[in-house]
Write a structure and sequence with these properties.
Number of strands: 10
Number of helices: 6
Radius of gyration: 19 Å
Helix content: 25-40%
Strand content: 15-25%
Distance between the termini: 37 Å
Shape: globular
Strand order of the largest sheet: 4-1-5-9-6-10
Largest sheet: 6 strands, mixed
Length: 232
Amino acid sequence: RVVGVVPARGGSKGVPRKNISPLAGEPLIVHTIREALSCPLVDDLVVTTDDEDIRRIALERGALAPFLRPAHLATGTALAIPTIQHAVVEMEARRDRRYDFVAMLQPTTPLRNADDITNALGLLIESGADGVISVVDVDNWHPMKMKRFDGNRLVDYDRPPVENPPRQSLPHVYMVNGAVYATRRDVLMEEDTFQGENCLGYVMPPERSVNIDSEADFVLAEYWMRKASLIP
């Protein structure tokens, strides 16, 4: 059994009411709910929120939202793991079942689709790994192209093989894109981690890896949606 958990608190610093701000004519959270409900491996989809408006939208769009998140898990500094653990405990009590796998699906990565969720969960279930986390190639934002300050002196963050190397010559490096965190239930609940000792990566393309932190990210997301003919 798999539970998908969508964490969506009401507050947001960068974009006020971000999780229900419109993206292509729909509240941001709706894009994640729609794709998660289309994933055949997700048995229950729950939205954990402290906000009645978000809860109402979640219920209208077919997700479960039988509880409101406690205030200490809805601050700007609240961590993801205890938030998802709380949702699992609540859902297992209310549904009278124990889950085998948990997938955290953040609404701020709205371009991840049902196939991404299915493929990541399928990889986790079939591989026997502790966790699967979605990633994207950093491309030109490579650590060997980055610098840091040592006092006033500019130095390499990670020394490249030659100065100013072409991007194509550098080893592939990936960063977490926030779209899918899939884990074994006991790894999350007993070890307080999404990844555990044996974590696999699910690679996604940049056009489905937009992470909404600012107003500009909404514009970028709509650009990729038009390119993919998801909106006119």
